[in-house]
Amino acid sequence: MENNYDEEIAEFSGLENCIKDLYFELETERAIMFGRQKDDKILFVPKTAIRGGWKKDKVLLQSIKIRFPITLFWRERKF
Question: For residue 49, how many other CB atoms are within 10 A of its CB?
Answer without folding.
Answer: 16
